[in-house]
Design goal:
single chain; six-stranded mixed β-sheet; four-stranded antiparallel β-sheet; binds inosinic acid; binds magnesium ion
């Protein structure tokens, strides 16, 4: 394929995708400030250990951490799921474990989005076995309509409708994570919404 053909293909792709802003960067930042205050109020004077799921949760974690007063540490974990179909049946696999023990710590799991809940259910079971002092969950986005597993978050940024969203850590084929806002992904020549279930 010539250079020009390659460039053309890239343009085609860009033309078939658009992102419609759903939550602006300003709203996200204001909501995170409020959540950070709420978390600190619930655990006054306690060191808090934030645990985020790579890679989507990283943006939320860094903004949350900067807004929580007092002592805060953090760590990362990574999981993968065996494709979308098996994902719904709960096949979540640990691909990178935490660096340090969470025993006796006040742990806040920080996730970008709570969708079917399978990922969070897996993580909560895993972490509970490690005997933290407290175990709480903070999610930036919640899609309650999609829930399969019986899990809930203690801190929710925004409840959103059942639409596939990108930005602020969330990706479509690893792209769009860097957007400072959250938007609905529109695909194809007619720019239709991408169905939430793959
Ligand atoms: P769950 O296990 O179904 O709750 O899925 C959680 C993970 O699925 C999130 O951490 C995201 O990586 C991904 N995910 C769920 N919904 C969306 C979405 O609308 N856009 C991008 N990624 C999503
Ligand atoms: Mg994720």
């Amino acid at each position: 394929m010539t250079k020009r053909q390659k460039a053309g293909q890239k343009n085609d792709k860009a033309q078939r995708e658009r992102v419609r802003v759903l939550i602006t960067g300003g709203r996200i930042q204001r909501r995170i400030q409020a959540l950070a205050q709420e978390i600190r109020k619930d655990f006054p004077g306690e060191p808090l250990h934030l645990v985020s799921v790579l890679k989507g949760g990283v943006f939320f974690l860094t903004d949350l951490a900067r807004n929580i007063p007092g002592e805060v540490s953090f760590d990362f974990i990574a999981v993968s799921s065996y494709g979308q179909k098996t994902h719904s049946s709960g096949q979540v696999r640990l691909t990178r474990d935490l660096d340090s023990s969470i025993e006796g710590k006040t742990v806040i799991v920080v996730e970008d989005i709570l969708d079917t809940g399978m990922t969070l259910q897996y993580l909560l079971r895993l972490f509970q076995q490690r005997k933290p002092k407290h175990l709480r969950v903070a999610v930036l986005l919640d899609k309650p309509e999609r829930r399969i597993a019986a899990v809930r978050a203690d801190y929710v940024g925004f409840s959103i409708p059942n639409e596939f969203v990108v930005g602020y850590g969330l990706d479509y084929a690893e792209r769009y994570r860097n957007l400072p806002y959250v938007g609905v992904l529109l695909l194809g020549p007619g720019l239709k919404k991408k169905p939430a279930e793959d």
